[in-house]
Amino acid sequence: MNVTFHGAARNVTGSKHLLTLTDGTRILLDCGLFQGMGDQTDELNGYFGFKPSTVDHLVLSHAHIDHCGLVPRLVAEGFRGNIYSTPATMDLARILLLDSAKIQAQDAEYAKRRKHHSPHGDGEIEALYTEEDVITALGLFKVVDYNEDFEIGPRVTCRFTDAGHIIGSAAVHLTILEEGKYTRITFSGDVGRYGDLLLKSPQRFDQADYVILESTYGDSLHKDLGPVEQALYEIIHQTCVLRRGKVVIPAFSVGRTQEILYALNGLELKGSLPDIPYYVDSPLSGKATQVLKDHPEVYNNGVKEVMKTDADPFAFKGLRFIERVEESRALNEDPRPCVIISASGMAEAGRVKHHIRNTIGHEKNTILLVGYCEPSSLGGKLMAGQPVVYIFGEEHQVKAEVKSIKSMSAHGDYEDLLKFMSCQDPALVRKIFLVHGEYEVQTRFRQHLEDAGFAHIEIPQLHQKIDI
């Protein structure tokens, strides 16, 4: 058999790993959208590297768009197999993919208008997929709970274990029988933090022969930073209370937004939440928060303890969810201090770009980054300390304070990743493939793994096929 890495190979988006068995059965692990890759993004999303109609099964680790965002395109191009996921992953995928289809349509319409006014304007510009493609894809989902063995083929069984990354996230464990021999392959998906603010820690898993392992923060440690609540309090107090400015927080709709709300709720329970307005300016974030509320089984013991006295740990005084575009625009015209939490997390798209454009030019404001940002994204450029950035094609001096809380990452650092792998006997792991990471980070993480006793570690390139 062999595995080909059609995404998240020496970068952090577009997760797609195609396993081809000796009998020709093809199992795709994740089908993600490339994001934040600059001018390459459209080209990368337009070419799978394989023919979708030849794929027999799709297994999703979780619902982040860089792991599931090209599923409707896969279906539109002929895939008709089952799509396996946890129940919460399907619930999240439904709202995220429908939202993505709307964005695809809007982007295509905008591109058509620009091309129409260009002297070179010819050729059709189409969305990657439509809402109808999403609906067709949702009809192919088969949901399976954690820790249940299920068959996806005559000689292939699968099991999900909790990866602790976002609600519903799973590590995928395949057991394949070929020529009288069993081969066990684990795909980590994205590995969460041990001691996460909301979710249970990643589960231990049975011995694997091969591991496809994410490595986003393979050279970083998060835990040296202070508690999230205290960091949020200090930034909000300094910006909104003392400087009378605004705090703009680009945050992914799934996971990060809910963690921020939970931390702010914790400040209110302690009586120390600054008395200012708090806005979640993302309709998708509101829906994702409701999905999390619908799946309390994923909460860790700390959240369950809070819920004994606080029925809604994601709500507090002064919080308002913004729905309409007119309300979002009004926030930019309101000079009063406030906190605005808005998607997207890398500040590459969505309403948050407008809020950053509106606040970036004044020293009283703060832009707070709370997760991974691809280096070429707007968030990545701000995190790197660039003094000038371009927003909607216009140059902006970065005068607002730029802060980050790295400990809020939903990705484990290298100690978390090593702990995830600690249930494995290194002598029995034939090979580890590092994916979902920048190449320089992966090379440093490879050394950490070698120090832990793992001997055979590869860092595949995009579309590279490797026999196993």
From TrEMBL:
<dbReference type="InterPro" id="IPR050698">
    <property type="entry name" value="MBL"/>
</dbReference>
<feature type="domain" description="Beta-Casp">
    <location>
        <begin position="257"/>
        <end position="382"/>
    </location>
</feature>
<feature type="domain" description="Metallo-beta-lactamase">
    <location>
        <begin position="13"/>
        <end position="236"/>
    </location>
</feature>
<dbReference type="InterPro" id="IPR011108">
    <property type="entry name" value="RMMBL"/>
</dbReference>
<keyword id="KW-0378">Hydrolase</keyword>
<dbReference type="Pfam" id="PF10996">
    <property type="entry name" value="Beta-Casp"/>
</dbReference>
<dbReference type="Pfam" id="PF00753">
    <property type="entry name" value="Lactamase_B"/>
</dbReference>
<dbReference type="Pfam" id="PF07521">
    <property type="entry name" value="RMMBL"/>
</dbReference>
<protein>
    <submittedName>
        <fullName>MBL fold metallo-hydrolase</fullName>
    </submittedName>
</protein>
<dbReference type="InterPro" id="IPR001279">
    <property type="entry name" value="Metallo-B-lactamas"/>
</dbReference>
<dbReference type="InterPro" id="IPR036866">
    <property type="entry name" value="RibonucZ/Hydroxyglut_hydro"/>
</dbReference>
<dbReference type="InterPro" id="IPR022712">
    <property type="entry name" value="Beta_Casp"/>
</dbReference>
<dbReference type="GO" id="GO:0016787">
    <property type="term" value="F:hydrolase activity"/>
</dbReference>
<dbReference type="GO" id="GO:0004521">
    <property type="term" value="F:RNA endonuclease activity"/>
</dbReference>
